[in-house]
Amino acid sequence: MEKLAKILVVVLILLVAAVPLLGQQIIAQPETIELRARMPENGGWSQEFIYGLVNVPIKLRMTSDDVVHSFALAQSSLPSVEIFPGKFSETELVFDQPGEYTFYCTRWCGANHWRMRGTIVIEGPASSDQPTSVPPLFLQLGLDLDAPHFARVIPSNRPESARASERTNALPDGLTDGENIWSKSPEALWKDLKADEDLDDQSVWDMVAWGLNQQGSSGWMGQGRELYTQNCLACHSESGRGDGVMVRDLPPMNHDKMGSEATRPPDFSDPAVLLGASPALLEGKIIRGGMGTGMPYWGNIFTSEQIRSLVLYLYSFQMELEERP
Amino acid sequence: MEKAALYHFDLTRYAWLRRLLTSRWPQFILRAITLAGFVLVILTGFIGSPVGSRNFAVMFVWIAWWSALKLIMLPFGGRAWCSICPIPMPGEWLQQGWLVKPGGKMFNLGLRWPRRLRNTWLQSAGFAAIGLFSALTLTTPVVTAWIFVGLIVVAVAVSVIFEQRSFCRYLCPMGGFIGLYATMAPLELRPQPGLTPVEKGAAAREWPRGCPWINNPAALKANANCGLCLECLRTESGANMALNVRSFDAELGQPGAFRLDEAFLSLGLLGSVMIYSAVFQGPWGALKNAALNAGSGAWWSFAAFFLLASFGLLPALLAGASALVRRTGNLAQPLQMVFTLFSRALLPLGLLSWIAFTVSFAFGKLAYLWPVLSDPFGWGWNLFGTASVEWQPYLLSATPVIETVLLVTGLIWSGRTILKTAEQLGVRGERRWAAAPVLLFALAGTLTMLWLLIG
Amino acid sequence: MTLPKFISILAKPILGLTLAVLALTAPLSLPPTQPVERYFRIEASQFAYSPGVLQVNPGDQVTIDLVATDVVHGIYIDNYELQASADPGQTARLTFTADQAGLFRFRCLVPCGQLHPFMLGKLQVGPNQLFLRAVLLSLAGLLLVLWKKPLSTISI
Asked: Which of A110, A230, A245 sits opposite C67 (nearest CB)?
C-alpha cells in the first residue's frame, strides 16, 4: 500500500516535470531563431546580432516579455511584424547580398524605444556588384548640422504650392534644379528668386513651396506622414511643436547649452525654424541624429527616398504642399 | 447554547461516507494531485513566460485557486483546502516516513512549538507580507514560484524540527486567514454529542502521535485550529467523532473567547481587503505603481500605510468604539475583552468583504485562464485549442449587484453578532443603543468596501 | 429536520434576498438632463489613466481622446463594449452617446506590462444609483438588526 502511494506520487511529479521537456522536444524547430523583445530598460532584443548566409532563409520566432513591440527590417519594404506579450509571431527573411542589415522596433515602447535596434550579419558571396553609395548632400556641402539656422524673412501668409502652379508658365528655371533646391533653405531660395523676379513677397513664397513640392516622388506625402507618425511624433508631437509625450518634461532647446542636457526638439510650427533649414540640412539631421537633443540616428533605418519624403513632409508644417499623382 | 444555532447534521451517520472519509486513499489521491499541481506551478513560474497573464503559475494560483478558495472552499468548507493542501506533504513524509499508512518516525526532533508563538501573530505577519508584495506576486510568475519554494522549504524545516503540523497551525500565512474565517463555515469536525468522560479520554489517548494539528479531538469546540485532516476519524475510537453540517452561524452565534492576536488578525484582514480593493479595482494608477515597485520610496509609503491602516488605525478605531460601549453601557469587563469580542463579531464583515472583492475581481479576469490551460508555459502551445481565446469580462452587469448583496449580508450578520455580543456583555434592553459605536464601525467598513467596489 | 421546517428556515433569507435585489435593480426613471457634448483627453501610462474617473449624464455625446505617453495602451469600456488603442503620442478617439446609465469600468486592452490586467478607470453616467441604493440598503439592514428582539439571553 505505502509503496503504491510512493509510486503514485513519484509518477505524478515525473509526469508534470516531463510536460515541459517533452513539449519542448515536440514543439522545437531546430532551424528557428527565438527572438524575445523587451523594453530597452529590460534588455531590449534578446539577440543584438543574428547571423545568416546569403540566400538561406532565416526563420524568426518572436515574442514580447512586456509590452507591444514590432519587428521591422531597416531600408526595406517588408511590412513590420507585430509582437505581443506572451504571443508568438513568426517571419522568414532571405537576403541575396552579404552585409549587415539593421532590424528595429517600430512600436514606441517607452522613451528609449529607438534603442531597440539589432544587426543581421549575412555572409557569403556577393551575387552582383553593389551600387556604389553616394555620400549624402550634407556631407558634400560640409554643412554644420548643429549651427543655429533661424530664418529672418518670414512670409505673412502660409505659402501654397497650388497658387504658384496656377502660373506654371511664369515659373523660373531655378525652381526645377534639384540640387539648387536641396542645398538652399527656403529663405535663401526666396531671396534668390526675389532678386530675379518682379513679384510680390507672397507670390515668391508660393513659388518656393511649389519648387519644394516638385522634389517629391509620387506618393511622397503619404509616405512622409506615415514615417513621421510612426517614428517622429512621439517626440516632435502631432502638431510639430516638439512637445511630444516622450519629451514634454524636458527643457526647451537652447543652442548655447547644446549637448549639456537632453532637450525638447525645435518647434516646427515656428516659421523661423524650418524656413531657415535647407532640405540637405534636415536630411543630415535625420541621418545623423544628435543635435544635443538626444534624437536618434535614422541613416541606417530609412532609405534615402524615405528620408527625402520625410524632409518634404516636415515643410508641410509651414507650407501647403500637395500630394503628387 | 443559543437556540437558533443548534442545527447540526452528522454526515458520518451514513456508513458509506464514513468509510470514504476513514480510508486515507481518496484524500491521499487528491493531495497527490495538488502536489503535482504545486510542482507544475513552480516549474511554470521558473521556466515559463515572464508575462503573468500567459503563465500558468500566476493564473492558476492567483485567479483560479485563490478565487475558488475564497468563493467556495472557505465559505462552505472552512479548512477544506487544508485537508488537501500539498505544502506539508514532503515535510510530513520526512517527519514520519509514510504517505498513507501510519508508521514510524524518520527525521524529527519533535520539539513543541515555542509557547510564546502559539498564536496567530506570525501568520498575521506572513499574510501582511504577502499583501505588501501582492502587486508584484500577482503579476510575476517567478516571484510566485519563489514564494512556493519558500513555503515548501520552511514547511519541511519546521516539520523536521517541530512536532506534527506545527507549520500549518502556527506559521502558514494562508492558515491564519483560512482558520479565522473557518469559524463561519457550515462544516465541522467534532466529538459526538454526549460522550462519556471515559470515551473522551479514550479519544484523546488513542492516536499514537496525537492529532496532527495538535488538538484534543474529544474537546474540539472551534474550527479555527482543526485542519480537517480527518485523522481522528481513523482511530480506534473514530466512531466518537463526527463530521457535521451546521448552520453558518453555529459557532459565531455562540459566545466564544477570542485572543488579542486573533482580534488583530481579524481587523488586519479587514484592512487588507480594503487595500487590495483599492490597489486592484480602484482607478488610482499611482497607488498601483507604488504597490508594484517594491523597494522604491513610493512602495515604502504604501507599505507603511498598509500596515498602519490595517494593524494600527482599524484596531485603534475599534478600541475607541469598544471603550465608548464600555462606558455608556456601564460594563465591568476589561476593555481588552470587549475589544476582542467585537473584533470577533466583525468576522462576517471581513469574510464577505473578501468574497465581494473576489467576485469583483475573478469574473473580470476569468477569461485569462483559458489560454493558459492550453499553453501553461506561455511557449506558444495549444493543447486544448483555447490558446487564442481573447480576453472578455464575464457577468459584468450582475457582479456589482452580487457584491452589494454580499456586503450588506456581511453587515447584517456582523450587526446581529455585535448586538448579540453586546447583550452578552450586559448591554441589554433600553441600553442596547450603547452598542451603536461598534455598529457604526461596521457600517463605515461596509460603506468603504461599497465605495471601493461599486462607488 | 422536517422539510417544512427547512423551508421555514430558508424562507426569510430568500425573501430578504429577493427584496434586496429588487431594491437594487428596480428601474427608476430620473428626470432627463439636457444632453451636452463632453470632451475628455485621457492620458494613459503604465498603469494609470489620467483622469481615471469620468462623469457624464445620460444622453451626453461623449468624445474621449486617448493619448498613450509611454507604451502602446488601449481602452475598453465595460458594457458599452467600445474599444480603441493608441500608440504613444498618436491620439485615438472614441465618440459615443452615453445611453447606458450607471458606473462602468474601463480597462486597458493592449498588454502594457505587469499590472496591465489591473489598469482601469471609471465612467460614471448619471448618478451612481446602485451605490446610493446600496448605502440605503445598508442603513435599512442595520435598522432591521436593531429593531429585532433581544438576540441573546446569555451573559458572559
From this structure: A245
